[in-house]
């Protein structure tokens, strides 16, 4: 592909930027109140309002042209037909196959992988049912009451996020726990409340070589063996992995292993058996409903025109905000306590996927790629960092995620929650002029001189772009739609930026050096590093005892 920034569509978008540079979103609404009709769209259960962005129909049309020139439609089709779009690892990226119905066919590795997917789903179903009914027991014959998922990154963040999001659907018989950090405080805190005879560990690791996961898994097994014996491990440890050999070397019978495949990226794996902890928490029918929601969104993504395609539009608005308006970061602000883990989940999805600088040609990009993704559930963030978004010097576009129906009956709370979310999108766009600030203070009874002095402090520049994603409620199906939307948004942005969204070589170096330093610590060798690193190792050796 040609240099992105030299494409005629890119140049035209730069001219559009010049045209709208001094304008404001409010002004665009004054000039064209009808923009709300065409700068929004609906896909499945998700309504997206992107009218509170500094763009208009001409800009959207040019962004769509850019997507076409960058071959977004061809790449979507390459993904769905199992081509090796992960071009540095020579693999397809087929998470869409994990949620496809059993009558579909997707060929990879010389056969229809949908059969493999449904075979594992059946195995999961059988297992979940046997835990639910009490057919599968612990070694004393008692029911399993606690599930501990041990995994990190994609083998943790998706399941944690979904289990929290679907709290109202939890089985009352099972408690879910997640251990990811190699800091043993997390593991020990959780174990301190558990009874080994009623606890089941899921060791979730695509590679089954991840240092943190293996350390936690070994310590969990040691803890278990203080009460149970080796023979009992089969009832208390199962694995989710692509690496049967390592699973068996750990001591888990491969009959108790749930398989997935190389063509599932870690951060795209919650739909696979990595979602076992989700299925155990909410039941297999709810897990399947989540898959169905994601599949509905896949069908939309594959068949809708670029102009009415939810993930494509989200991706293009993001490109406008980052590459033309200069945003370095995007806040994700879910107004739902149950979506409190969504920002952390999206951090991995977006930043591990598109935090790259090398194009397929091996050249480096000369434009920005993935912005920094951060956020927190509203309304808590309003009392913490929103100050900076409203009045600071940084430019922070935001995605607001609102959920209309609450899973409880305290309607007043729900009205307050949603009112706050909507109000923030209005305040961020509108801001407050100096004149308005002064008038307000005079109304409050302030002396005119004092009002004049304080007015600059109480002014808001406004003109902050926001997207609002409105969901009717947070069901398993709608959660599936929401996550698939973001997955495909990330893919589309990766295509336009010309990078591979499906590898993660950037995490290698740190892992390798951690291994070296660990061995230097055990041999008390401080000589192999630069002066700062060596002195930090020495300090640790001195302080640790
Ligand atoms: O951090 C790198 C990474 O490879 C992620 O992509 C992955 O989700 C995580 O580590 C865990 O890997 P695994 O499932 O193989 O233990």
Polypeptide structure, described:
This protein is α/β, with parallel strands linked by helices. The chain folds into four domains: 4-69 and 305-430 and 464-503, Glucose-6-phosphate isomerase like protein, domain 1 (Rossmann fold), CATH 3.40.50.10490; 95-289, Rossmann fold; 432-458, no CATH class; 506-543. It has 22 helices and 13 strands. The protein has helices at residues 8-20, 25-31, 35-38, 57-69, 72-80, 113-133, 157-165, 184-191, 211-225, 233-236, 244-250, 276-282, 284-303, 310-324, 342-354, 386-391, 411-430, 434-443, 448-454, 476-497, 508-522, 531-543, and strands at residues 40-43, 46-49, 107-108, 111-112, 146-150, 175-179, 199-204, 237-241, 257-259, 329-335, 372-375, 398-403, 466-471. The strands form three sheets. A six-stranded mixed β-sheet has the order 1-2-13-12-10-11, sandwiched between helices. It is globular and about 80 Å long. The protein binds 6-O-phosphono-beta-D-fructofuranose (F6P). Residues 151-155, 205-207, 210, 213, 266-267, 352, 504, 507 line the site of 6-O-phosphono-beta-D-fructofuranose.
């Amino acid at each position: 592909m040609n240099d992105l920034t030299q494409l005629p569509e890119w140049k035209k978008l730069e001219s559009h930027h010049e045209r709208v540079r001094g304008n404001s979103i409010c002004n665009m609404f004054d000039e064209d109140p009808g923009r709300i009709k065409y700068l929004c769209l609906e896909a499945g259960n998700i309504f997206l309002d992107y009218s509170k962005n500094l763009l208009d129909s001409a800009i959207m049309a040019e962004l769509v042209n850019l997507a076409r020139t960058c071959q977004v439609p061809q790449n979507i089709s390459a993904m769905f037909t199992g081509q090796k779009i992960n071009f540095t690892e020579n693999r397809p990226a087929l998470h869409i196959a994990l949620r496809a119905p059993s009558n579909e066919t997707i060929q990879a590795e010389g056969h229809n992988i949908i059969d493999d997917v449904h075979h594992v789903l059946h195995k999961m179903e059988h297992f979940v049912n046997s835990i639910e009914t009490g057919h599968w027991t612990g070694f004393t014959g008692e029911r399993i009451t606690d599930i501990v998922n041990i995994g990190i990154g994609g083998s943790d963040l998706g399941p944690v996020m979904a289990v929290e999001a679907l709290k109202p659907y939890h089985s009352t018989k099972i408690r879910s726990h997640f251990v990811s950090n190699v800091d043993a405080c997390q593991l020990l805190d959780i174990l301190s409340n558990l009874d080994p005879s009623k606890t089941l560990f899921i060791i979730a690791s695509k590679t089954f070589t991840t240092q943190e996961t293996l350390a936690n898994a070994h310590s969990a097994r040691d803890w278990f063996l203080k009460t149970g014996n080796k023979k009992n491990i089969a009832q208390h440890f199962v694995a989710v992995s692509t690496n049967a050999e390592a699973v068996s070397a750990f001591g888990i019978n491969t009959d108790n292993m749930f398989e997935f495949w190389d063509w599932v990226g870690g951060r795209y794996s919650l739909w696979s058996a990595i979602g076992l902890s989700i299925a155990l928490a909410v039941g297999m029918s709810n897990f399947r409903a989540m898959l169905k929601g994601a599949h509905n969104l896949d069908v939309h993504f594959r068949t809708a025109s670029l102009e009415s395609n939810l993930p494509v539009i989200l991706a293009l608005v993001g490109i406008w905000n980052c590459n033309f308006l200069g945003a370095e970061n995007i806040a994700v602000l879910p107004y739902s306590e149950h979506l409190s883990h969504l920002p952390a989940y999206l951090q991995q999805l977006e930043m591990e996927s598109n935090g790259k600088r090398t194009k397929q040609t091996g050249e480096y990009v000369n434009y920005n790629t993935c912005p920094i993704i951060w956020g927190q559930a509203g309304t808590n963030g309003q009392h913490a960092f929103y100050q900076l978004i409203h009045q600071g010097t940084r430019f922070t576009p935001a995605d607001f995620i609102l959920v209309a129906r609450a899973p409880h009956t305290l309607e007043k709370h729900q009205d307050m929650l949603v009112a706050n979310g909507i109000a923030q999108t209005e305040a961020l766009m509108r801001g407050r002029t100096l004149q308005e600030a002064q008038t307000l203070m005079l109304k409050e009874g302030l002396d005119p001189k004092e009002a004049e002095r304080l007015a600059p402090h109480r002014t808001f520049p406004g003109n902050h772009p926001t997207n609002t994603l409105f969901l009717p409620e947070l069901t398993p199906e709608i959660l599936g739609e929401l996550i698939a939307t973001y997955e495909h948004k990330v893919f589309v942005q990766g295509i336009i930026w010309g990078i591979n969204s499906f590898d993660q070589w950037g995490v290698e170096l740190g892992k390798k050096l951690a291994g070296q330093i660990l061995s230097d610590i055990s041999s008390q060798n401080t000589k192999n590093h630069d002066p700062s690193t060596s002195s930090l190792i020495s300090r640790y050796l001195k302080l640790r005892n």
